[in-house]
Amino acid sequence: MTMCIVNMKAYDGCYGAKGLELGLALEKVAGEFSSETVLAVGAPDIRLFSENLSIPIYAQHVSPFKPGGRTGAVLAEAAALSGAAGTLINHSERRLTLADIEASLSAAKRVGLATVICSNNVNTSGAAAVLGPDRIAMEPPELIGGDISVTSASPEIIGSTVTHVSTLAPEVGILCGAGVKNGADAAMAIELGTEGVLVASGIVLASDPGAALADILQGMEQ
Ligand code: G3P
């Protein structure tokens, strides 16, 4: 099944009551397609979104800790209790060390969260995949939030990631992201051998986020 993870990031209008309103609009559109659509939200919003939406809600991050004397942690245990179905781990906007990626992955697996490790290039995608997440999501950092999709700017990097990850860890799913905006970008992501896309600004900052999601899902499913 193809997959679209919408990362709500920390954009204005993407958290709290307004964020939920946006989430409800996206969920309505997602219901018209067969792809799995997921929303990745900040820790304070996991419960709000999980309790009011039926599509899977992922945490944007979980800490590499077990419960204990920590301050400011996003415990995998707490994320799961709040209703998260999965989590992103590592991100160019939330970089972790290799040791912390492994520890966050263990924490997420301990409580049964689906796991997506974000990576920034071919080699880190391979290293991340060997750790055994459900999926990796490759996003060249210089294209994140920009107007040019990774699928047009660097299709060869996606192809090489697919080859590298499939060789090292064939059971790990592959997503790509950065600058993905429309159905043509999403169709290219599938053509290059991924399961789908991780996307933020192309949907949540669009003048009509629902229409943007519909276009992307249509592109993936054609
Ligand atoms: O996590 C998704 C992300 O980093 C891509 O962001 O705005 O380029 O779709 P964007």
Helical percent range? Answer: 40-55%
Strand order of the largest sheet: 1-2-3-4-5-6-7-8
Bound molecules: SN-glycerol-3-phosphate
CA gyration radius, whole angstroms: 16 Å
Mean pLDDT: 98
- Strand and helix order: EHEHEHEHEHEHHEHEHH
Structural class: alpha/beta
Specify the CATH homologous superfamily: Aldolase class I
CATH class: Alpha Beta
Q: How would you describe the oligomerization state of the chains in this entry?
A: single chain
Strand count, sense and closure of the main sheet? 8 strands, parallel, barrel
Shape from CA axes? Answer: globular
How many DSSP-defined strands?
A: 8
CATH fold naming: TIM Barrel
The CA-CA distance between the termini, in Å, is 13 Å
% residues in beta strands: 15-25%
| Tally of distinct domains | 1
CATH architecture assignment: Alpha-Beta Barrel
- The total count of helices amounts to 10
Keywords:
binds SN-glycerol-3-phosphate, globular, 8-stranded parallel β-barrel, alpha/beta, 10 helices, TIM Barrel
General description of the model:
It is a single chain. The chain is an alpha/beta fold and 222 residues long. The protein has helices spanning 16-30, 46-52, 76-81, 98-110, 122-130, 150-153, 155-168, 183-191, 201-204, 209-221, and strands at residues 3-7, 36-41, 57-59, 86-89, 114-119, 135-138, 173-177, 196-199. It has one domain (3-221): Aldolase class I (TIM Barrel). Strand 3 (57-59), helix 3 (76-81) and strand 4 (86-89) form a beta-alpha-beta unit.
